[in-house]
From TrEMBL:
It is an enzyme of class 6 (ligase). It catalyses: tRNA(Gln) + L-glutamine + ATP = L-glutaminyl-tRNA(Gln) + AMP + diphosphate. Its EC number is 6.1.1.18. Keywords: Aminoacyl-tRNA synthetase, ATP-binding, Cytoplasm, Ligase, Nucleotide-binding, Protein biosynthesis. Residues 456-529 form the tRNA synthetases class I (E and Q) anti-codon binding domain. The lineage of its organism: Bacteria, Bacillati, Bacillota, Clostridia, Lachnospirales. The keyword Cytoplasm applies. PANTHER family: GLUTAMATE--TRNA LIGASE (PTHR43097:SF5), GLUTAMINE-TRNA LIGASE (PTHR43097). Belongs to the class-I aminoacyl-tRNA synthetase family. Residues 27-336 form the Glutamyl/glutaminyl-tRNA synthetase class Ib catalytic domain. This is Glutamine--tRNA ligase. Residues 340-439 form the Glutamyl/glutaminyl-tRNA synthetase class Ib anti-codon binding domain.
Amino acid sequence: MENETVSKNFIENIIDEDLAEGVYDTVHTRFPPEPNGYLHIGHAKSILLNYGLAQKYNGKFNMRFDDTNPTKEKSEFVESIKADIKWLGADWEDRLFFASDYFPQMYEAAVKLIKKGKAYVCDLTADQIREYRGTLTEPGKESPYRNRSVEENLQLFEEMKDGKYQDGEKVLRAKIDMASPNMNMRDPVIYRVAHMTHHRTGDTWCIYPMYDFAHPIEDAIEGITHSICTLEFEDHRPLYDWVVRELEYPQPPKQIEFAKLYLTNVVTGKRYIKKLVEDGIVDGWDDPRLVSIAALRRRGFTPESIKMFVELCGVSKANSSVDYAMLEYCIREDLKFKRPRMMAILDPIKLVIDNYPEGQVEYLEAPNNMENEALGTRKLPFGKELYIEREDFMIEPPRKYKRLFVGAEVRLMNAYFVTCTGYEADDDGTVRVVHCTYDPATKGGNAPDGRKVKGTIHWVEASNAGKATVRLYENIVDEEKGVYNKEDGSLNVNPNSLTTVTAYVEPVLMEAKGYDSFQFVRNGFFCADIHDSKEGEPVFNRIVSLKSSFKLPKA
């Protein structure tokens, strides 16, 4: 076992090399979201990767909000992101930062570039800058303002800061190379005028740094060693390296890119989620049909299931999509031994045991989880009238049907054998009541004479049953049509994504509090909704059904 090699991902290999060569003597990572929406499952991968690397190498992990764009940023999003990261178990200790904390240093950094002749104030409009930039096959043209003197640039940049210019009237650009094959290096804009109130700095600033300029500075100030980001920033890395090099940071951070986490048939785009919220199709950013981290938490997913999912996805350089069924597999695996298995009837019909004593209720012992004895047992009320699932009785059953029909004997879970003797139905054929007799000798679910039954059904005693609201979810996306409409780019919404039913449940389930989760026998895993559950009136969200054809891919 001592010679067994642990497989490492490519990022860990880079870190190992950097530590061995003395490039860095520690590992310091960060998670830097922009507070312009709620985080989703893809962000969970980044959070757990960055935090996991810091833990593995006994390093540090920073939480930093990249709040350089006051247009879409809100304190609401800041608070939701902090809650998500804490829930996932990533501990930033006392290292909570905001890019806006560094606005003075960023301004000074821009001044330093101007003094070095590496930045200039440009009067071209946004459209003109695009036009001058050239194409992938043609070099760009230099701005007519590119060769302003250092003194003039310093004066104009100070005037920009002092509010003398309108939005879009002037920008500060890095002076790099208008013929570079990398479009990001063709004199990118690094500061723009924006007369907007910032959620933290108020009206102190009317110029704001661009992300590609701000981000490497933030990393360098905080002593980040490995700046882990997603693959779309690979083309921005030369600019990242240029910024930290030209600003002469003594131990500049290293940017490393990895592939994003894509899930099939889910909505992660902020503008699409915003539209679903605004159109009232979902009840907020944490609606359980979404895959924001807050929505997954509300639906009943656990941090452990998310971590298992992220680990199964792995870390690579190649973009790929993962089936949502794998996420469902992870929550099933996490909950199946942890949660009690209770009885709840989602589509009820009444079962009357004609030979059971009138008015009698007895209490039967039932295990909370047959695969985990540590969860103990509970007492179940049992009486003459029960509720069973409508699908557990058929008038004309197909071959191999193992549940109730006239003449059939089945086991009532943890109770008795019963034999169906008849039923009552409405004029349209809808069954209302099923009649049966029970065998008192089979208490506990086994017959003293050794006879076997093929079917076992669950039930809830009628006089003690609680009535609870239960929400059943399907994908919010119409999976047959795909996520987006090819013609106009709109979402293909599944009109049946939410079904609400009233269920009869064991009395103990009426005491459930928000985030309490259970397995409902044969129906799936359910979680009490944190917003809509009230004392004695739980609302249960189905986390996931019990069965799936998904199998883990072979390694």
